[in-house]
Q: What sequence folds into this?
C-alpha cells in the first residue's frame, strides 16, 4: 500500500509510519499549490494522510488510485470535502483521539494564567522573593468561579469535567444539541453567547472553525467579558481577532489569555499576541503529546487499512461518502 | 481586646486588618529573636496573630496577658507548642482555609511540567515553532497516569479529587488513618512509601513538616522514582533533600519537579534548585491569593474574638490545650 503523507517534514514522521507502507511525503507551496513533481509522486497513492496541508481539486485530480483521505487529527478545514465527495472519496478524521490532551492543555493554560505561573517562576529564580509574593495579589482561585465553554463537544466536555472537579460552575454555548447526559454529568447551564461572555470568569473556545465560529471573538465579544476574565483557545486560528485581543489585554480590559492556535501558523514574529500583556502562547500543541501522536497515527492507519486492504467501510466519514 | 500581628510588613496583609481593631505589629530579627522595643509592644496584648514569625519563650515571657496564639495559615512549625502549652495557652491554625488554593497550585505545577509549559511558551515566543512542536516528544498526558499523594489530608485529598477528574489513578500514603469515605470517593489505594515512589508517575508531597516527613524525600527515595516521573511539593521545606533533587533532575533520574517551599525562605542564592533542569519554582505562594488571605484573617480573628471576648473554646487547637 502506498500512502502520500501531506505534511510539513517532521523529524519523527519516519518512525511513526508503519514499515510495510510505501510512503511519499509532500507539502504544498505558497497558496496551497502543489508542484508538478510532487503531484506525480502522489499519482499512484492509495490514500492521502493529512497533517495540516490542503486537499484540493489539484491534488485529488492527480491521485488516480485514491480510496481515502484521512486526517491525522480532528479538524478538517483544509480538506475540500465536496471535491472529494464528487469523486466518491471518503474524507475522515480521528475524532476524540486527542480530546483528553486538548482538555488538559486548556486546563493547564487556565491554571497557569490564574497563578501567573511563568512570571512567578521567573521572579523566584531571580531571587525576587518579595515581588514573587506580591504577584499573588493578581492571582485568584478557580474554586467557585464560572467557566464558559463555547463548544461542548469532545474536548469541551472533557474540559468541563476537569473544571468541575476544581469546584467551578459550568456554563456553555453550542450550535448543536448537546446530549442531556453530557450536560448533567458536568452540571452545565446553557447561555446565549453574549450572556456567556458577560458571566464567565474564564472563557474557553472549543469549537471547530466554521462559518459561525470564524471571527467569533471580536472586539464586541471581548468588550462583554469581565476585566478580571481569562480567555483560552485551543481550537483553531481564525476564531479570535488577534489584534482586538492584544488591545483588550494591553488596556487591562481582560486579565489574561492562553492561546495555542493562530491566524497564521507557524506564528509570525509580528503576530500581535507576541507583544500582548499576560498572554501565554504555545504552538498548536494542545492535542500533541508523544502518546497522542502515536494514538492518532494508529487510529488513522487502522482506518486506511480497513478501506484499502480489506475493502471495508471507513469510520469517521466527514463528507457523506 | 488588643492583638499583636507577628508578621513581616506586607502591604496586602496590613490592608486587611480591621481599622477599629487595636493592634501592634512586630517581626523577629534574622536570628529569630525579638528586640527589646518589639517585646515592649506586647506587654498588654491578648492574642498573637501569626504569619510566619516564631513564637517562643522569649516572646511569651514578655506577653503575660496572652490567651491565644493564632496562626493566619495552616502550618505551625514556627510555634513552640510546648512552651505555650506549659502556660495553658492554646495554639491554633485555620485548618483547611487554603486547601483549595494549595490543591490548585499543586495541579498547576503538575500540568505545567507534564506539558513543558515554560519551555514551550519560551520557544513559541521566540518564533521557534518547530522546536516548540518537537518538545511535545517529551510532554505527556496525565490521562491514565498514577498520582502518588503523600499526606491525604485537606490539601492532599483536594489535589487527588482534581487529579481524578484528569483520569489519573490515585495511590496514597498517610501516617494517620484516612476517612473511608474519602478513600472510596477517590478510589485511592494505600501504598507503603517506597512502593508509592516506585509506582507513581507524579509524586506530590502534602504532609505537615514533622519528624516522619523531615528529610523524607531523600536521595534513596528519589532513586526509586521512574525516570519519567515528576515530583511536586507545596508542603514545607526540609521534606525534600534539595541537593539530592538537583542531582536527580540534572542527571535525568527524574523528569521534572515543581517546588513551592524551601529549606531556607526566602530562597537563598546558593539553593541547589535554582537553575536545576525542568524545575519550576514558586515563592511559597501555593495557599496565597487575595481570596484565601481575606478568608484566613477573617477566620483567625473570629477564633481570637471567641476566646478573648467571649471566653469560648477555641477552634483548631494544635497543642492540646482545651
A:
Amino acid at each position: 500500500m502506498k500512502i502520500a503523507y501531506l505534511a510539513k517534514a517532521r523529524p519523527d514522521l519516519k518512525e511513526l509510519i508503519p514499515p510495510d507502507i510505501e510512503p511519499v511525503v509532500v507539502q504544498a507551496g505558497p497558496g496551497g499549490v502543489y508542484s508538478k513533481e510532487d503531484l506525480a509522486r502522489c499519482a499512484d497513492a492509495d490514500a492521502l494522510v493529512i497533517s495540516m496541508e490542503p486537499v484540493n481539486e489539484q491534488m485529488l485530480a492527480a491521485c488516480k488510485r485514491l480510496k481515502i483521505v484521512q486526517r491525522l487529527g480532528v479538524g478538517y478545514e483544509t480538506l475540500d470535502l465536496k471535491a472529494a465527495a464528487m469523486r466518491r472519496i471518503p474524507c475522515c478524521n480521528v475524532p476524540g483521539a486527542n480530546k483528553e490532551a486538548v482538555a488538559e492543555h486548556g486546563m493547564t493554560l487556565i491554571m497557569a494564567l490564574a497563578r501567573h505561573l511563568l512570571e512567578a517562576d521567573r521572579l523566584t529564580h531571580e531571587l525576587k522573593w518579595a515581588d514573587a509574593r506580591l504577584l499573588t495579589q493578581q492571582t485568584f482561585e478557580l474554586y467557585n468561579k464560572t467557566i464558559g465553554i463555547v463548544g461542548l463537544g469532545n474536548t469541551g466536555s472533557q474540559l468541563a469535567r476537569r473544571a468541575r472537579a476544581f469546584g467551578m460552575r459550568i456554563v456553555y454555548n453550542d450550535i448543536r444539541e448537546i446530549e442531556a447526559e453530557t450536560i448533567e454529568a458536568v452540571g452545565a447551564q446553557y447561555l446565549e453567547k453574549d450572556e456567556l461572555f458577560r458571566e464567565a470568569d474564564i472563557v474557553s473556545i472549543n469549537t471547530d472553525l466554521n462559518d459561525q465560529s470564524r471571527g467569533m471573538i471580536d472586539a464586541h465579544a471581548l468588550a462583554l467579558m469581565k476585566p478580571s476574565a481569562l480567555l483560552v483557545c485551543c481550537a483553531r486560528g481564525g476564531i479570535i481577532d488577534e489584534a482586538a485581543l492584544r488591545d483588550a489585554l494591553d488596556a487591562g480590559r481582560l486579565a489574561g489569555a492562553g492561546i495555542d492556535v493562530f491566524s497564521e501558523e507557524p506564528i509570525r514574529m509580528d503576530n500581535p499576541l507576541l507583544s500582548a500583556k499576560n498572554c501565554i502562547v504555545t504552538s498548536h500543541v494542545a492535542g500533541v503529546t508523544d502518546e497522542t501522536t502515536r494514538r492518532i497515527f494508529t487510529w488513522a492507519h487502522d482506518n486506511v487499512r480497513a478501506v484499502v486492504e480489506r475493502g471495508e467501510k471507513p469510520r469517521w466519514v466527514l463528507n457523506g461518502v | 481586646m488588643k492583638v499583636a500581628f507577628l508578621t513581616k510588613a506586607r502591604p496586602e496583609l496590613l490592608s486587611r486588618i480591621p481599622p477599629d481593631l487595636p493592634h501592634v505589629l512586630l517581626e523577629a530579627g534574622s536570628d529569630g529573636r525579638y528586640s527589646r522595643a518589639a517585646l515592649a509592644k506586647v506587654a498588654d496584648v491578648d492574642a498573637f496573630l501569626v504569619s510566619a514569625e516564631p513564637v517562643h519563650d522569649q516572646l511569651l515571657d514578655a506577653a503575660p496577658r496572652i490567651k491565644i496564639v493564632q496562626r493566619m495559615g495552616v502550618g505551625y512549625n514556627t510555634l513552640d507548642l510546648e512552651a505555650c502549652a506549659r502556660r495553658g495557652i492554646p495554639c491554633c491554625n485555620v485548618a483547611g482555609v487554603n486547601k483549595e488554593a494549595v490543591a490548585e497550585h499543586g495541579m498547576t505545577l503538575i500540568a505545567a511540567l507534564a506539558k513543558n509549559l515554560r519551555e514551550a511558551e519560551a520557544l513559541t515566543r521566540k518564533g521557534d515553532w518547530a522546536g516548540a512542536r518537537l518538545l511535545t516528544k517529551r510532554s505527556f498526558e496525565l490521562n491514565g497516569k498514577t498520582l502518588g499523594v503523600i499526606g491525604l489530608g485537606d490539601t492532599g485529598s483536594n489535589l487527588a479529587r482534581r487529579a481524578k477528574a484528569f483520569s489519573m489513578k490515585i495511590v496514597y500514603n498517610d501516617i494517620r488513618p484516612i476517612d473511608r469515605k474519602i478513600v472510596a470517593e477517590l478510589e485511592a489505594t494505600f501504598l507503603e512509601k517506597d512502593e508509592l515512589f516506585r509506582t507513581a508517575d507524579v509524586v506530590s508531597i502534602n504532609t505537615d513538616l514533622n519528624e516522619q516527613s523531615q528529610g523524607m524525600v531523600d536521595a534513596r527515595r528519589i532513586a526509586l522514582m521512574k525516570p519519567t516521573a515528576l515530583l511536586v511539593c507545596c508542603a514545607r521545606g526540609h521534606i525534600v533533600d534539595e541537593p539530592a533533587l538537583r542531582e536527580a533532575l540534572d542527571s535525568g533520574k527524574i523528569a521534572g519537579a515543581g517546588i513551592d517551599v524551601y529549606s531556607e525562605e526566602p530562597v537563598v542564592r546558593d539553593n541547589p534548585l535554582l537553575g536545576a533542569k525542568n524545575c519550576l519554582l514558586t515563592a511559597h505562594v501555593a495557599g496565597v491569593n487575595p481570596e484565601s488571605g481575606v478568608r484566613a484573617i477573617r477566620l483567625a480573628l473570629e477564633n481570637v474574638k471567641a476566646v478573648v471576648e467571649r471566653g469560648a473554646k477555641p477552634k483548631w487547637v494544635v497543642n492540646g490545650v482545651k
About this structure: Residues 290-310 of chain B form the longest helix (21 residues). Chain B touches chain A through 60 residues (CB under 8 Å). Chain B is about 35% helix and 15% strand.
